[in-house]
Design brief:
Length: 302
């Protein structure tokens, strides 16, 4: 029977362990899944005894700093980060490893990456059709977890944590975090504006940033959202100039006015590793704007 047809006939609703075991059975190579922080989630039941990375996952449940450094030096992290939901998967080859492997990403309902899937070619060599088949498996598992609240929360928390580190300049090794940052940048480049929504004067007492993040997201799903302190951060991908950026907020302006939310907007940038600088710009615009303008909700850094 056609392998892709067999994969598509894997029964839904029986969990990702069942899907991995069936994938191993159909494609003839073991598979495992780890989260965005390199913690093992689960693996097909029949594994490998002579692959050091597989054994490290099975023994310790996560990858060590030394292995992550190896991944970085072999450009594995960049390769995995450059996978997208649309272009599928990437091969990872290294002369230092006995077996080749292929990676793909898993996504939650909000299309945030939540895990990576890897197949190791220890039993059968990869073929020309393997990337398409792995993409099919990733789609099947992403559908399986789409209604799982754990992965919904994990995806948002993972993104929020990386953004917090960027704002606070708390990243020591950019190489290790390059993949994480690239995941957040997807769909935003080349021009990013950061809008910081201040909830201090909002109509809700003890306003919950997560509540407003979801409110904004429903009104304008094109952008990426995060929370930091008592702010909602809105990452806007725009072709407009700074003077025209308000046009990109048309679907949100009525909520800002209705909820008495004030917003500061940075100048444009391209690299999220520079987020600290542009966060301060947005805060500066917000603080100065509220002092100078009485009847405005949006203030742009000048």
């Amino acid at each position: 029977m056609n392998i892709k047809k067999q994969l598509n006939e894997i029964e839904n609703g029986r969990g990702i362990q069942y899907i991995l075991n069936k994938t191993h059975e159909i494609m003839g190579n073991p598979v495992l899944i780890f989260d965005m922080e390199y913690n093992l989630i689960t693996a097909s039941t029949d594994g490998i005894n002579d692959d050091p990375i597989w054994c490290e996952f099975m023994t310790h449940g996560k990858l060590s700093d030394d292995t992550l450094e190896f991944f970085k030096n072999e450009s594995f992290i960049d390769s995995v980060a450059n996978c997208t939901q649309f272009d599928g998967v990437t091969y990872l080859f290294s002369s230092k490893l006995k077996y080749n492997r292929i990676f793909g990403q898993l996504y939650n309902k909000d299309q945030l990456p939540v895990a990576d899937l890897v197949m190791v070619a220890c039993e059968n060599p990869f073929e020309d059709c393997t990337p398409e088949l792995i993409k099919t498996v990733c789609d099947i598992i992403s559908k399986e977890i789409s209604q799982d609240e754990y992965y919904q929360s994990y995806g948002q928390n993972y993104q929020d944590d990386i953004i917090k580190k960027l704002i606070e300049e708390n990243i020591r090794d950019k190489g290790v975090y390059a993949g994480h940052v690239s995941n957040i940048e997807k769909g935003l480049k080349p021009n990013i504006f950061l809008a910081v929504a201040d909830l201090a004067q909002s109509n809700l007492i003890n306003a919950n940033p997560a509540y407003y993040r979801e409110l904004f997201k429903r009104a304008e799903p094109r952008y990426k959202y995060s929370t930091y302190l008592n702010y909602v951060l809105i990452f806007i991908s725009s072709n407009n100039s700074k003077l025209q950026i308000k046009k990109d907020l048309n679907n949100l302006i009525h909520i800002f006015k209705q909820e008495n939310v004030h917003v500061g907007i940075s100048s444009t940038f391209e690299n999220l590793f520079e987020l600290h600088k542009y966060y301060l710009e947005a805060i500066h615009a917000l603080c100065d704007g509220k002092k100078i303008f009485d009847n405005q909700q949006i203030y742009i850094f000048k």
